[in-house]
Structures are given as C-alpha cells and as structure tokens.
C-alpha cells in the first residue's frame, strides 16, 4: 500500500535514534507528548532494523543516524508497492537543494528513490542517492573555505593534470573542443587510485557549478557518484557504476554481444527462486543477459516484458560478486517497471500536458520497445564462465589496471550530511545510458 510520511515524522525518528544511541531511556509518562511521538518513530526504526541501538557498533550507528537525519530533511517521503515485484520494497522522496544552502539550475526539487529486498535496503538506497545527488553540487565554501584547502581552484604551475588520450576523453565528456587548455579550467582536487598521488581534474567534469559560475556544454552527470558509510565503500560503489555504464553502452552499440546467463548459475546463486518469490503474480516475464566486456568485471542486464513482448524495460548491475551484480540488475528492473507504471498513471489521471521529459521517455518505451524490436534484447552467444570473485576495491582496481584503465577519485563528502560521497572517474569508459526507442 502507498504510505506517505507526515512532515516531521522522519525528523522525530532521527531524534529518537539519537536518544537511543546515546543510551537515554524512553520517554516517561510524565512527558506524554514526547512519548506519543516516540512510539510510531520507534516502530518505524524497528522496521528498519535500527533498534535496539545498543546492539550496534559505533560506526554503524553513526551512519544510521546520518541517514535518518538526512531523511528528516526531505520535503516528502513515501513508500510505494511494486505491482510486478510485491516481494520487494520501494522508498521514495523529494528534497530541495535550497534547504541545504545550494543553488540549482536543474529545478527546485530532487526526486530520489531506492529499492531492496528489505525496507532497510530500500530506505538506505533512497537516502544514499539523496546524499550523492546533493554532494555533486558546488557547495558554498568549495572555492573559499573558512579554513583548510579549497576543493575548487585554479590550476597552479606545479599541479599534475591529465594529458594525452585521458585529456582528450575528458574534453569530449564536457563537450569542449579538443584543443582546449586544461589550465584555463577550474580544477578540483583528486587522487589516483593506483598510486594515491594527487592531481587536478576539471571541476565541471565532477560536479555541477553554482549558478553564475562558468559551465561547460555538457554538464556533469551522476555516473560515478556514490555515497556510503565510508570513502572506501562509496568508491567501490562508484567504480561499479562506472563499469556498469560502460558495459551497457558497449552492449547497446553492438560492441559487446549479449550472452545468455546459464540457468544453472541462477539456480546455484539462488536467484531463480528469489526472483520467483519477488515477482509472484506478475504477468511480465523476465530474463537476464550477460554483457561483460573487456574489463572482465561481470556485468548484467535484467529485462522484462509482457507475454506478447511489449513494454520492455531493463535494469543493470556490475561487480565481482556475481550474485550481487545479478540481484542489483533485477531490483533496478523492478524499480524501472514501477517508474513506467507511474508515468502511465500520471497520463491517465492528469493528461499529456502534465508529463515531463522523463515521463514521456517511459511512455515512449512502453509503446515502442518490444522484445523483437532490437536484436540486443536476446542472447547472441552462449553463457560464459565467471571465476568466483570477492567484491573488494582492490580486486576491482586490479581488473581495471589489467585492462589498461586508470581510475581517479574526488572526495565529495559534505560534513553536514554525515556520509561519505565520492566521484570516480575512469578515462576512456562510456558514462551515458542508451536512449530506448524503436529503430
């Protein structure tokens, strides 16, 4: 069922979790107003698995406090059922960058969403996306901090900058001419993930400049941005997204032939049974494609369509943990199905004039993308074997190094948010998602 949280409820949850984490007792009868507010807050926190807080280590508690506190600053927060995945959870919200002292030319509100096998996973996915989206805006003080080093500054003569093919890629990503001088662009401090050495990347590649600041023809997107409980965790998630987007581009452009995923692998990983329970009763059929490319980091597409093959949508996942990558693709697929249904519902209830560009893309995909409209939607090669791998930052970087790719990281952590946030940049990889239209 649809549940919208009342204004102030999640802020009350944050205060309740803070009190419990500090070891303060529950409100007494003498403070009935506080007690009445804490009861539903405690129930929600228990549904997240956040209480009892005294059984939680300090780092986890700190991260959870930051997540709930950030959710408490949402303008709207809600849960939605997923008709085609009743066994999964969805959490959504809206927030205003202005509420964090940020100016944005992309609209007054940010819409964020998360999904998962549990309410905790969906909630953390949604709030993590909010931290990610806020962090890659330019913040007050990025250029002139009250203390410490500026995050954004003009290059100095001794700064290490990208050059050669890496610089060519960066300029293309920003839509700038190939003969542009990188020393004329504001820079942002980064490190090489190979050797830890500092360098300066173009700021406009990594974040959205404040209104009135110099921009570029192709502003920074969110690919390669991630938030997490630590810089290392956020970096791994960011790199996996970069790998995923590159594989998706290679698949869509025909450079990576889609392979079947062996039913035995899905069974071994428990994903056939899990998908059946998640999607119990859905009329849509789903299937997986293996789109692992030259990076040799497993990447997958999960697709679904109605029995007659219409209204194809997809989700993507990548990473050295096969089960996690496949499950990530499946859960993203479930969220995509919901997004398409919401766009169709909006058109039915409010008419064409109420639709935005994103709604129209979902509806176009619903009307035009069929299982036989693209050869990419069906396997063109047999399954391939994947060596069992452990998900780690070091192992992922090793794969990139063997493929001849260098990775860089910008720390975009914003202290007021309480969560780590980064942007990972891997020159030479594709960063965009394909536009799904019928040929």
TrEMBL record:
Keywords: Ribonucleoprotein, Ribosomal protein, Transferase. PROSITE patterns: YCAO (PS51664). GO terms for cellular component: ribosome. Pfam families: YcaO. It comes from the Bacteria. One of its GO terms (molecular function) is transferase activity. The keyword Ribosomal protein applies. Residues 114-439 form the YcaO domain. The keyword Ribonucleoprotein applies. InterPro entries: YcaO-like_dom. This is Ribosomal protein S12 methylthiotransferase accessory factor. It comes from Tistlia consotensis USBA 355.
């Amino acid at each position: 069922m649809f549940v919208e949280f009342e204004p102030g409820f999640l802020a009350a949850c944050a205060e309740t979790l803070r009190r419990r984490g500090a070891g303060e007792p529950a409100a007494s009868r003498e403070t009935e107003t506080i007690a009445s507010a804490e009861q539903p807050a405690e129930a929600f926190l228990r549904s997240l698995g956040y209480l009892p807080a005294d059984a939680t280590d300090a780092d986890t508690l700190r991260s959870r406090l930051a997540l709930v506190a950030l959710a408490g600053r949402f303008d709207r927060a809600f849960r939605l059922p997923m008709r085609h995945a009743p066994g999964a959870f969805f959490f959504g919200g809206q927030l205003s960058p202005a509420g964090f002292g940020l100016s944005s030319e992309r609209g007054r509100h940010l819409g964020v969403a998360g999904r998962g096998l549990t309410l905790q996973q969906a909630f953390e996915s949604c709030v993590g996306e909010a931290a990610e989206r806020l962090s890659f805006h330019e913040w007050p003080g990025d250029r002139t901090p009250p203390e410490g080093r500026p995050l954004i500054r003009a290059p100095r003569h001794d700064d290490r900058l990208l050059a050669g093919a890496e610089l060519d890629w960066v300029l293309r990503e920003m839509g700038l001419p190939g003969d542009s001088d990188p020393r004329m662009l504001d820079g942002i401090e980064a490190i090489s993930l190979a050797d830890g050495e500092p360098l300066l990347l173009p700021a406009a590649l990594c974040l959205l400049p404040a209104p009135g600041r110099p921009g570029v023809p192709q502003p920074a997107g969110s690919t390669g941005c991630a938030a997490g409980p630590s810089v290392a965790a956020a970096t791994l998630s960011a790199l996996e997204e970069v790998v995923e987007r590159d594989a998706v581009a290679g698949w869509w452009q025909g450079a990576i032939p889609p392979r079947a995923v062996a039913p035995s692998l899905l069974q071994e990983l428990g994903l056939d049974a899990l998908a059946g329970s998640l999607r119990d009763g859905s009329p849509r059929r789903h299937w997986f494609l293996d789109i692992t490319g030259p990076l040799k980091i497993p990447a997958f597409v999960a697709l679904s369509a109605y029995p007659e093959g219409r209204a194809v949508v997809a989700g993507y996942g990548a990473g050295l943990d096969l089960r996690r990558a496949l499950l990530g693709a499946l859960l993203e697929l479930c969220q995509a199905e919901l997004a398409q249904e919401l766009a169709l519902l909006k058109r039915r209830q409010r008419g064409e004039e109420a639709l935005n560009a994103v709604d129209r893309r979902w509806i176009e995909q619903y009307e035009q993308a069929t299982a036989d409209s693209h050869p990419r939607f069906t396997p063109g090669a047999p399954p391939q074997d994947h060596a069992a791998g452990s998900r780690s930052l070091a192992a992922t970087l090793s794969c990139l190094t063997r493929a001849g790719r260098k990775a860089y990281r910008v720390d975009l952590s914003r202290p007021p948010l309480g969560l780590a946030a980064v942007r990972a940049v891997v020159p030479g990889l594709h960063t965009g998602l394909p536009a799904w239209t019928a040929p």
